[in-house]
Amino acid sequence: MSRLANILGAAALFGAAASGAHAALPFGTLSFVQPDGTAGASDVIDIVVRFTLSQDSDPFAVDADGLVTAGGPSEQELLDRGFAVDAPYTTAISYSAGCSGSFLGGNCGGPYAFNFGFGFSNISLQPGESVDFLFGRLSPNGGTAAPGIYNFYSAQLQVVAYRIPENGPYQEARFTLADTCPNGDDLSCDFTRTVRAGGGGIVPEPSTWALMILGFGAAGSALRANRRRALPGPARG
Predict the structure, then answer these.
(1) pTM for the whole thing?
(2) pLDDT given at position 181
(3) Residue 114 near residue 94, CB atoms below 8 Å
(4) pLDDT for 58-98, tens place per residue?
């Protein structure tokens, strides 16, 4: 996978200390909720993703501060990464975003700036369950972007075990739970927006248009019925 840089969601690591052994590292899939659409040149674009916990995974839970309360790496998995487990440590959710793709220009210096959404918190999942959350936002540098087609590939959901000793260096072991493009940057897994001059907005899928048309028809029928019911009736005396 070609990535010239990664943006790490370090702010997700702060919170009260919470440590302890876990059964095994959870795993699942991560996908973009609405991978295609349009946007205006000055629009801030939300990247919403869906994490689905595998049927073969242990339950997984994260509290409101982003600390892992169920699931997470086992002591053996930590030891295999060279992370000592004989002292207190914290296990928290974290994020990583690849800079490849035309939104960020391959080196995070492209036409858009990225900010993490830190939306994965206060969540409890059983095997097979899913949750949608705001992964990040793309803002056009300088206020507007040139019209064109832009894409973004890799969003990762991670778990990190870390320790900040009183004396000594910061220590961590980082594990990837899911990646939107686990097999490399590919057009089959990218997040794409067609940016148009002026106003934008998401273009509905064909099935959505059908539902909207049905909705308009139902609304029209209801309006006609209300108009019929609003006709004057016999006076009561």
Answers:
(1) 0.74
(2) 92
(3) no
(4) 999 999 999 999 988 999 999 999 999 988 999 999 999 98
Measured over the CA atoms of residue 141, residue 121, residue 156 and residue 164, the dihedral's sign is positive
CA contacts within 13 A on the Cβ side of 120? 33
Half-sphere exposure of 159 (CA within 13 A, CB side): 27
Quote the CA–CA distance of 14 and 6 in Å, as a whole number. Answer: 19
Cβ contact 106:7 at 8 Å: no
Q: What is the Cα–Cα distance from 40 to 34, expressed in whole angstroms?
A: 16
The string of DSSP codes covering 172-237 is EEEEEEEESSTT-S-GGG-EEEEEESS---PPPPHHHHHHHHHHHHHHHHHHHHHHHHTS--PPP-
Who's near 218: CB < 8 A, 6+ residues apart? none
pLDDT for 178-213, tens place per residue?
999 988 877 889 999 999 986 545 444 444 434 433
* Geometric angle at alpha carbon 98, from 156 and 116, rounded to 5°: 65
Alpha carbons 200 and 39: distance in angstroms, whole number: 4
Q: Rounded to whole angstroms, how far apart are CA atoms 194 and 176?
A: 30
